[in-house]
Amino acid sequence: MAGGEPVRIHLLKKKGLSIGQATASVLGERLLDAIFILVLVPFAIYLFKDRIDIGFIQIGLTIGIIFFILAIILFLYAIKNPEKTKAFLCRINSKISGLFKRDPAKSEVFVDRINTEVDNFHESMIFFISKGKRAFISAGVITILFWSIGFMIPSMILLGLGLPPFFIESYAAQILLIVIIMMPTTPGSSGIAEGGVAALYSVLIGTSFSYLLGVFVLLFRLITFHMNLIAGAIFQYHIFRSVTSFSINSLENEN
Q1: Which residues, other chains included, contact 1 with Cβ-Cβ below 8 Å and sequence gap of 6+?
Q2: Are 13 and 19 contacting, i.e. CB atoms less than 8 angstroms apart?
Q3: What is d(CA 10, CA 23) in angstroms, rounded to the nearest whole number?
Q4: What confidence tens digit (pLDDT) does each residue in 44-81 have?
Q5: Is 237 exposed, middle or buried (CB count within 10 Å of its CB: 0-12, 13-18, 19+)?
Q6: How far apart are CA 213 and CA 143, in angstroms?
Q7: DSSP single-letter state for residue 15
Q8: Integer Cα distance of 185 and 177 in angstroms
Q9: Which residues have CB under 8 Å from 43's CB, separation 6+?
Q10: Domains in the chain: boundaries
Q11: Residue 39 CB: number of other CB atoms within 10 A?
């Protein structure tokens, strides 16, 4: 869910997209996620406003919302002003070249590559917004279905533990949880997710069943996080093994 964007861009590039097009695709998905979450944040806050009064959750929500809004603004700015984006990236490249004493000829090639990929990114996003509206709307519908189905997992766990599912409240709780987990001050959000789940669901489960809260949190994180890590590791192993094998075979054929 976070941190895997460079890998996904790399794999899309292997399928024939340019880096700019692959970046537009991946960041377009992130834009839809951010819009979906931000639209539902007021609903989630309204539902929990009289139920929670925990300092770190309020701080996390504030930081997370600011981060989301800033990311969207920067994203839209990059789309609207490709020349300024190029200039910014070229300045970074110049500083890196000076720091590592890179060959000026190679640095110039890299600048050309930056200009090309920023143009590809800009053209792809403009295509999404103008001519690709139907695809963008379809992606938005799939985004809603993707998150909504995932948000049913805690309710299914609650039912398995013999507790009420709290479908709507659970939906709202996970909106708040995502905002907290994604805030930039918590790389990996280790511990924050567990604390957030415990804090949000403790008010739903109630004191009568508080002894099941630890079991619920453990099962929730196992299914929604650790199982993803295991599945992702297996898929990435096979993907990169096939890429490596293809590269080796190509080199042998050339020799």
Answers
A1: 228
A2: yes
A3: 9
A4: 888 887 776 655 566 766 776 777 778 778 877 877 78
A5: exposed
A6: 29
A7: T
A8: 14
A9: 172, 175
A10: 5-243
A11: 11
**Residues in the chain, total:** 255
* pTM of the predicted protein model: 0.70
140 contacts: CB under 8 Å, gap ≥ 6: 32, 35, 36
CB 34 within 8 A of CB 68: yes
What interhelical angle do 82-100 and 104-129 show, nearest 10?
150
Place of tokens 């990929």: 117
Separation CA 154–CA 167 (nearest Å): 9
Return the DSSP state at 237. H
Query: By C-alpha distance, which of 160, 139, 150, 140 is closest to 225?
Result: 150
Task: Of 76-85, 121-130, 218-227, 242-251, give the lowest mean pLDDT range.
Answer: 242-251
Q: Report the pLDDT value the prediction gives residue 202, as an integer from 0 to 100.
A: 85
Tell me how crowded residue 245 is: count the other CB atoms within 10 A of its CB. Answer: 10
Structure tokens at 16: 């024939």
Amino acid identity, residue 119? D
User: Could you say which DSSP state residue 178 is in?
Assistant: H
- Dist CA 181 CA 183 (whole Å): 6
